[in-house]
Design goal:
Elements: H1 3-29, E1 37-41, E2 46-48, E3 52-54, E4 57-61, E5 64-65, E6 71-76, E7 82-84, E8 90-93, E9 97-105, E10 118-125
């Protein structure tokens, strides 16, 4: 084998061994611990009976806004005061009182970490219009 071919092969082997090692060093020098995930609700929290309010939620990681994520919405503890429309993209205020909107991020691998659920306190004011029913 010619000298120049041996040097080229040895260089490629050395480069192939150094790339994974360099990646491990960069990972070790990066920030330690979980990344900060923030779920932000930007809708109204004080509703009047009969209101239908779109749910607006954003998810960010370390301050960087993520593209729309799969979220699970639920009303706790009393869904007779506030309920979700069938597609779970709007709140429907049914009767006066308090409830909470629970927002859960599904597939947290999208953010690279686990994230706690977010609870938003809601307050409904007013009385039910005559003959109204909540879904």
């Amino acid at each position: 084998m010619r000298q120049s071919v041996r040097v080229a092969v040895a260089g490629m082997v050395l480069l192939g061994a150094l790339i994974p090692a360099a990646c491990m060093v960069l990972d070790a020098l990066g920030p330690a611990g979980p990344r900060e995930v923030t779920i932000t609700y930007a809708g109204d929290t004080v509703l009047s009976v009969g209101d239908v309010v779109p749910i607006t939620v954003t998810v960010s990681v370390d301050g960087v806004l993520l593209p729309p994520q799969q979220l699970r919405m639920a009303i706790t503890p009393d869904s007779t005061r506030v309920t979700l429309n069938p597609t779970a993209d709007s709140l429907i205020a049914c009767r006066a009182g308090q409830a909470s909107l629970l927002v859960q991020l599904l597939h947290s691998s999208a953010s690279g970490t686990s994230v706690a659920d977010t609870s938003v306190a809601l307050r409904v004011t007013g009385g039910a219009p005559p003959g109204s029913r909540c879904p």
